[in-house]
Design goal:
Layout: H1 2-28, H2 32-45, H3 50-62, H4 66-79, H5 84-96, H6 100-113, H7 118-130, H8 134-149
């Protein structure tokens, strides 16, 4: 039974990786609808893969499907709660949907999850400036600058290695 599970798991992993490769190629070709379909297929093969929910969310943002992106980011967070980039990207989607209080909550959660992520302070600082909190904005932007000087830039787009 153990050997059977091993072979089955190896087959599932290789199939998921192949689907991801096709999705990455579609992203490079700027065929976001195709990338969306193949990340969806990869999620059917392994429905608990937080990175594929995140990757599909990024694709859906490019396609301006913000509601779908929001659902995917929430799923990614449900499977991996300790990734600050997931919260930060969801905050940006909330901003696009004009749900500012949830955006701020997610920015705060991103900073709480990874207090050395300069990008999170920078985004929150710009957001605070946009809503009129000049003092908070200045503090966040100074903190971001300090972290960047120390080399703590933080997460960037996480499509994957091949993208």
């Amino acid at each position: 039974e153990t050997l059977l599970n091993y072979v089955k798991n190896q087959y599932v992993d290789s199939w998921r990786l192949r689907l991801e490769e096709i999705a990455f190629k579609a992203i490079r070709d700027k065929r976001f609808d195709k990338a969306d379909r193949f990340f969806t297929k990869a999620l059917k093969v392994e429905s608990t893969n937080a990175m594929n929910y995140y990757r599909r969310a990024l694709v859906r943002i490019k396609m301006m499907n913000y509601r779908g992106a929001l659902e995917d980011l929430s799923s990614a967070i449900r499977f991996k709660e300790n990734v600050a980039t997931f919260y930060l990207k969801r905050a940006q989607v909330y901003r696009m949907l004009d749900v500012d209080f949830k955006a701020m909550a997610d920015m705060n959660k991103a900073i709480k999850t990874d207090p050395k992520m300069a990008e999170a302070y920078q985004i929150r600082g710009k957001f605070r400036l946009a809503i009129g909190d000049r003092t908070g904005s200045r503090m966040d932007l100074l903190k971001a600058e300090e972290l960047m000087r120390n080399g703590n830039i933080g997460g960037t787009e996480l499509y994957g290695v091949a993208a």
